[in-house]
Amino acid sequence: MSEFQDQKKKMAKKIWGIAALVFFAVGGFLLMGITGRKTEISPEKASRPVKTMTLLAPEVTFRRIFPGKVIASKTAELSFRVSGPLVELPVK
């Protein structure tokens, strides 16, 4: 085949691709427009009354103490840009 025919085929593929993209885009917008018109806003339902109670924390009558040592399962090494002790760490 000649170079001209190859270019012609490539151009035809591009045109068909663009046409298909435009077709699906327009079809999607039309579909959204058609389905959007059928939806109706339903009126809000009246709120129902709710029973509420205030709970208090129970008094702890017993206490358990377990002696032991806690070891972290994961650790992270931290480094700072400036050397020296950490004087303050304001956290909200």
Tag the structure with descriptive keywords.
92 residues; transmembrane; membrane; transmembrane helix; RND efflux pump membrane fusion protein barrel-sandwich domain-containing protein
What would your notes on this structure say?
- The protein is flat and about 90 Å long.
- It is 39% helix and 0% strand.
- It has 92 residues and is an all-alpha fold.
In short:
With 92 residues, the chain is mostly helical. 39% of the residues lie in helices and 0% in strands. It is built from 1 helix and no strands.
Mean pLDDT: 83
**Outline, from the CA principal axes?**
flat
Along the chain, the helix and strand elements come as H
Give the count of helical stretches: 1
Helical coverage, percent range? 25-40%
Poorly predicted runs: none
Distance between the termini: 74 Å
Radius of gyration: 35 Å
Q: Which strand-content bin applies to the residues?
A: under 5%
**Number of DSSP-assigned strands:** 0
The largest sheet is: none
Tell me the structural class. Answer: mainly alpha
Transmembrane segments: 15-35
Protein name: RND efflux pump membrane fusion protein barrel-sandwich domain-containing protein
Keywords: Membrane, Transmembrane, Transmembrane helix
Secondary-structure map with pairings?
Layout: H1 3-38
